[in-house]
């Protein structure tokens, strides 16, 4: 039953839930909504029959008229939320995720909690490490190619692990290289002008 009054939505009928995300990719409105198997409420409902749950998006990641960012909740994430329609329990809204045992990213363990890691499903990742004396920023492709800035601001671009054959810098204007010492090493060095 869909509520007919605001009292049904916002009165003393609030119902909280804990559940597991079962679908993130098929939202027909492409709003970042998810389907959640709500523990104790939706246990016997087929995944395709679950309602789409709205997501509360942090103000730092909001989306409006196609600009901004949808959240990256993954299938299998444990989530916390409330039903907007109270005891009717047909309009779920996810407020946040609740990490569970087994959700720890291995890259964070050595410097936990100072190494913040964001990793995608395919294995691309970013690290922001605030370990005193070893601060760094690293962004890595799943293949192993990465760039990294160390504690002193030195920057490394490394594609040797993947044996990438090309690193390109392209500009329609000037490219300036300025340093007290410039080393160029290679089996073949070509200068075309």
Distance between the termini: 74 Å
* CA radius of gyration: 24 Å
Treating each run of at least 4 consecutive H or I residues as one helix, how many helices?
2
> How do the helices and strands follow one another from N- to C-terminus?
HEEEEEEEHEEEEE
Largest sheet: 5 strands, mixed, barrel
Structural class label = mainly beta
Number of strands: 12
- Helix content estimate: under 10%
Strand percentage lies at: 25-35%
Q: Which geometry do the CA atoms define?
A: elongated
The neighbouring-strand order within the major sheet is 1-2-3-7-6
User: Low-confidence stretches at least 5 residues in length (pLDDT < 50)?
Assistant: none
Determine the mean pLDDT: 87
Summarize the structure.
The chain has 193 residues and is mainly β. It is built from two helices and twelve strands. It is elongated and about 75 Å long.
């Amino acid at each position: 039953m869909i509520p007919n009054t605001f009292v049904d939505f916002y009165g003393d009928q609030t119902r909280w839930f804990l559940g597991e995300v079962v679908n993130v990719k098929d939202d027909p409105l492409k709003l970042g909504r998810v389907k959640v198997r709500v523990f104790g409420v939706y246990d016997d409902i087929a995944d395709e029959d679950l309602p789409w749950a709205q997501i509360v998006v942090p103000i730092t990641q909001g989306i409006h008229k196609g600009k901004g960012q949808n959240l990256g909740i993954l299938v299998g994430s444990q989530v916390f939320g409330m039903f907007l329609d109270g005891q009717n329990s047909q309009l779920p809204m996810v407020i946040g995720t609740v990490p569970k045992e087994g959700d720890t990213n291995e890259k964070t363990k050595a410097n936990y909690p100072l190494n913040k890691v964001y990793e995608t499903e395919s294995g691309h990742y970013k690290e922001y490490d605030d370990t005193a004396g070893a601060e760094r920023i690293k962004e890595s492709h799943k293949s192993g190619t990465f760039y990294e800035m160390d504690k002193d601001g030195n920057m490394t671009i490394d594609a040797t692990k993947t044996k990438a054959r090309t690193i390109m810098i392209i500009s329609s204007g000037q490219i300036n290289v300025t340093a007290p010492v410039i080393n160029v090493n290679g089996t073949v060095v070509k200068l075309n002008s």
